[in-house]
Specification:
Helix content of chain B: over 70%
Number of domains of chain B: 2
Radius of gyration of chain B: 21 Å
CATH class of the largest domain in chain B: Mainly Alpha
Largest sheet of chain B: 2 strands, antiparallel
Strand content of chain A: 25-35%
Number of helices of chain A: 17
Helix content of chain A: 25-40%
Number of helices of chain B: 14
Largest sheet of chain A: 6 strands, mixed
CATH topology of the largest domain in chain B: ABC transporter involved in vitamin B12 uptake, BtuC
Number of strands of chain B: 2
CATH class of the largest domain in chain A: Alpha Beta
Distance between the termini of chain B: 31 Å
CATH superfamily of the largest domain in chain A: P-loop containing nucleotide triphosphate hydrolases
Largest interface: A-B, 28 and 21 residues
Strand order of the largest sheet of chain A: 6-7-8-3-9-10
Number of domains of chain A: 3
CATH architecture of the largest domain in chain B: Orthogonal Bundle
Oligomer: heterodimer
Shape of chain A: globular
Structural class of chain B: mainly alpha
Amino acid sequence: MHDKPGQRLLEMRGITKFFPGVRALNNVDLELNRGEILAVVGENGAGKSTLVNILGGVYYPDAGKIILEGKEVVVDSVQTANNLGISFVHQELNLSDNLDVGANIFLGREPRRKNFFRLIDQKKIYQDTEKILKRIKMQCSPYILLRDLTIGSKQMVEIAKSLSINAQILIMDEPTSSLSRSETKQLFKVLKELRSQGVSIIYISHRLGEVKEVADRVMVLRDGVVSGHLSREEISHDNMVRLMVGRDVEKFYRRKHVITEKPVFEVKNFVVPSKPNRRINFSIYAGEVLVLAGLVGAGRTEIAHALFGIDKPLDGEILLNGKLLKINSSQDAIRAGIGLVPEDRNLNGLIVEMAVEENITLVGLNHYQKMKMIQFKMVRSIAREMVKKLDIRLRNIYQVVESLSGGNQQKVVLAKWLSLKPKVMLLDEPTRGIDVVAKEEIYRLIERLVSQGIATLVISSEMQEVLGIADRILVVYDGEIKGELRKEQASEEAVINLATGGK
Amino acid sequence: MKKVAGTVIILILVIIITTLIDVSFITPYNIKNILRWTGLFGLLSVGECFVILTGGIDLACGSIVGLIGALSAHFLKVQGMSIPLTLFLCIGLALLMGLLHGVLVTKVKLPPFVVTLCGLFIYRGMARFTMKDITQGYGSGFEGLKFLANGRIPSAFWSAGSAPKIIADWSLPMPFVILIIVGIILAIFLNRSIYGRYIFALGRNEKAARFSGINTDKMTIIAYIISASCAGLAAILFSLDLNTVQPSTAGSMYELYAIAGCVVGGVSLRGGEGGILGVIIGTAIVRVLYNAINIIGIATQLEFTVVGVVILIGVGTDEALRLIAAKKALREMRKEK
């Protein structure tokens, strides 16, 4: 059925895609041969996901064309993509835990019996499922419930599902992010097996070591353009990193921090519940901005949550000004003077249907009460003061937070914590989803925190931001601190190298 | 506030329509009855609304009315306990039930529906078993206590029959007065205390509340305690009012009236939205409807159907109006751009 390997299967020509305010992709070309594993690598925001989402029918390009087997095709929906034999295995699996393997593979496309009320043809489902599972050499009963499988096996089921629609192109977005080492090995075996059967695979990953292991060819994206190709022999960690970086890093502002030798906040032998076999050690010194860099999903948010007591740490010590803290809940953390600006503003940072005033004073409400009755005058004046201090733009403090712009919403989150005069501030992606002007303002606020002697930890995945604001960078990879870079040693290359698991 | 205004309008509309059909609706006797029932059911509803505000539901309050009501009569009449001890035991028991619901919901992480549904079954069974299905009552004594359910003020300040006619006609039944007092206390708690704001916050977004250092488990438990305690208080008043408690049926389906009062009164079942005043008016609407069915002469077999349909129309219109308003706002926003 398949033509011989090595033949050109797919071409994407001049693909351009705009999102509000940014050009995500600019004139990108991609070629894919039959029976080839092509890895697409790049930093966060380089445009990898956008590119494969266009191929998978999730986005529609603003310019460019897609040529499949020599014919130009229009991929305007996931359905069309599937019909053309293009299948997308997303990072988050789209499977139903309560159904068995066979039912999952044929979900929505169940074969029906001819004559009897068009009921589902169970027999055919399980026969076909067995055939497909054999193709990927998976030893597993089609009757087993999804919830009883390991994550690695679930991933295999997802691949099997793709094969069941006769996919000739398989797109995989970060397939190994939640797999163990041996599961990853198993996955690669299957991918190579599929390659020999003539299936072409587009493989997206941050983990350069794995890319080296599995890819026939690498395409590197940077800021929405192709920055280079590497053939099988050229693939090496250094070569990939060299192509991934190379942007000019503008310093956001020049300032002199007076960094002392005195640690304000110390974390010793700290164990985060999601990574029970990693120990974390670091200190924040007075007067510095410490940045936790790393790629999305490296486990930085989990560290922040554990420090803040949202997830109970399993072991370790936290010291503030040399004094041991006992943190078992967010209440403990707040009492000790720790504040957290969470990554997801709408989900964790704000109660968006409530007024600005109510949001700002929610954490400090305990201080604005007499006999547990809210002192409304005090609450209002605090809210007004914080709005003025942080220059939050709004009509009045009774406005619901929902109606503010992203930047102003983020300032409300900051106002909430600063009203408490914290000693330690943890800021998780503080500039995500806000415009450039608001970003600048947030940076200036961070600056102010530091000058007030607040120990400040910023988690950021944006390289420019990391290099622009940090006095010291800790790079996290797979839940552990891989390395430390002082401001003088910090370069995009050095950070990426550590963040992708290099030495 | 806008929402409360809406419910007030519905209440007035229902009253006007009923009066137009049959003027006997607004006789002092009839109004007095409606207020008394509003007071009794309102106590259940204002308690219920705390649980609904946290995003949960309390299905146990009807069975609590049955169990605590029967126990109250049993303690006084059969066991011969003193009035203060009986009140203490009854309210304390209800409070413990609320505590149990709250702990099961927050610490054991069972769904509120399941926890309180089991409560509904368990308390009903306990009422029937402990009372051996024998109907309980207070007999002819306990006039002072019965005043809480049957008395009226200010007419009670005059000796029997000597109050001026206007006062005798329009005095407020005690259950309604108790509802107003409890309502004011709970409204202050909900709108003025830090705990009330915590409850609103966690009902809207429990995660963000937790990230703001709010002890969400504690606040949720408090909500269940308030609900069960209100049901306990209502139980005593219901039993005194009727002076007879059948363990197998007393309070049956009252949990649904409690929820109906909240829903009609503008409490969102999604949590985090609503207020005490709205709930009291909502309860009044349900009671007026009930009364209207009797007065207008609709077959009593249709009672439930009529109440159900009217609530559906009321809440449905409210939701529809909100959708229209949201669409209009969206259109205007697009125009500006």
